[in-house]
């Protein structure tokens, strides 16, 4: 089904950001979605939006590498009137679309100078009901923040506004952590897609490759490289040369470069056939921009890279060095480039073999489309009904026998206020269902306390301490398993309860939820000593909690297929599991008074999983099946060892 998708991008120096965003827009539109691409940089005639609608804002650009001073088409500093016109058109586009998905290219990792207009769209999305999926799209390499507070500002904006970060690269070639301080607060947002390759698949000639192709991207920043290449060409006559000049280079500079060309060298404006020229050439000389790198990986010429480093830029140098380490290029630092050095490296490269077929993931477009579709269920969200017949039958039998079946809802791994948490709270409120959040004490941020301080029917349970795995390699993950000394387990359990109570005063119930639902029986027997009244794990409760004087109420249904891609498990199978839960209460094989627990994980759920939860809650509401709150399940003194669990 069709989604309505808004993509917002502003390129300021080269056209790489717009090229990626336009490729994503075309791919989504070709899949049948309604896509609007809003571009705020200089118009680029060679970049097509395909079947997507292009909205051009009053353009801005920069001079050199000064990203703090915005200029208009004529090179004059932009004024407030232009910035307000951009913001107004952007918001009008949003209001007209009412998108299901909003994608911001690079922001909040970059484009701080344009933060006001990006934030205006994000705030509109945050206030919308239903709220759209909000996604950040980034390249493989970012710019390391100059100050720690800038990274924290970026992470705070991610946590507040975003659901997902599509990283268009291959972590095996360049890990994002090499160019950005990736911490635990954003790891759950990141989805590597592979490199975006929207170019035409070139035909590789059977005849030996000939010629040297020189290109430096679309902007005037490439002129020094092109001048040195034209000088070097005078000493290498055995190969024909093609020097391609970007559309962002002025006509005056283009003519100047033509005048420097030797007889065996052509100087032309860059054309859409660049990739085919690479596929036929013996050697490429270029900078190391994102799109150029993808072209090189796909066409496999020998390659000499001169990464752009003016103004302290590090992106291209890091990418070039990773390619050199993989044996795919020779790198010359920009400050070391001269004609004689380039000639020496050309002869060295031509004497070697062509690089092998790349083992790098270049399927970024298809994966990006798949991520967006799976995380954002098409409207209307309920779509095809679930097969509830077996559950209907089981609930009818329970009613006939006078056995009340009830549910409760536990969600694990809460640490802070995020769009995913907002979606969770909204879903619970819409269906008037109490919610128990199992929070990780050592990772709780103030925003979580602020968000739920006044939230009705929301309780906090204690989800271990750090959610850190202490199991030996090869064994199932556990923070509180038998692998550790009981004194350490007890100390961490006590610390978890204390930290949770300090972080979220007045909301914490003394209920222990072991990470990965695994806990040492020895610790269970001592949890009362750590101040706990209750225990919640997974599957039907046992006598362990009762024997230890604990109230035990478990979860029973987890809709995520953890070992099969972490998407939604088979819905029919999930409904059967619920039917079996009811049947066990009918036959007495488990305590009929234990409510059936729905277990969710808001930080990792995809669109299909959210959709399933909404359908299930709606079904149970129609059946008038009650939901119990954790506050009612765990708010009295635990039973003695001889007393039954509630």
Summarize the structure.
With 646 residues, the protein is an alpha/beta fold.
Question: What key phrases describe this protein's structure?
Answer:
21 helices, 646 residues, alpha/beta, seven-stranded parallel sheet, disordered C terminus, elongated
Protein architecture, described:
The protein is elongated. Residues 378-383 and 640-646 have low confidence and may be disordered. The chain has 21 helices and 20 strands. The chain is of the alpha/beta class. Strand 5, helix 4 (148-161) and strand 6 form a beta-alpha-beta unit. The strands form three sheets. It has a seven-stranded parallel sheet with strand order 3-2-1-4-5-6-7, sandwiched between helices. A seven-stranded parallel sheet has the order 19-18-17-16-15-14-20. A six-stranded parallel sheet has the order 10-9-8-11-12-13, with helices on both faces. Helix 6 packs across helix 11. The longest helix has 18 residues, at 80-97.
- Quaternary arrangement of the chains shown? single chain
Number of strands: 20
Provide mean pLDDT, rounded: 90
Distance between the termini: 45 Å
Low-pLDDT segments, ≥5 res:
378-383, 640-646
Strand order of the largest sheet: 3-2-1-4-5-6-7
Write the topology of this structure.
Blueprint: E1 4-9, H1 16-30, E2 34-39, E3 53-56, H2 80-97, E4 101-105, H3 115-127, E5 133-139, H4 148-161, E6 164-168, H5 184-187, E7 190-192, E8 212-215, H6 223-233, E9 241-245, H7 251-259, E10 265-269, H8 274-280, E11 283-286, H9 290-299, E12 302-305, H10 315-325, E13 330-331, H11 339-350, H12 364-375, H13 389-400, E14 407-414, H14 419-430, E15 435-439, H15 446-452, E16 458-462, H16 486-503, E17 508-512, H17 521-524, E18 534-535, H18 544-547, E19 551-552, H19 571-587, E20 596-600, H20 607-622, H21 630-633
Parallel strand pairs: 1-2, 1-4, 2-3, 4-5, 5-6, 6-7, 8-9, 8-11, 9-10, 11-12, 12-13, 14-15, 14-20, 15-16, 16-17, 17-18, 18-19
Helix pairs in contact: 1-12, 2-3, 6-11, 8-9, 13-19
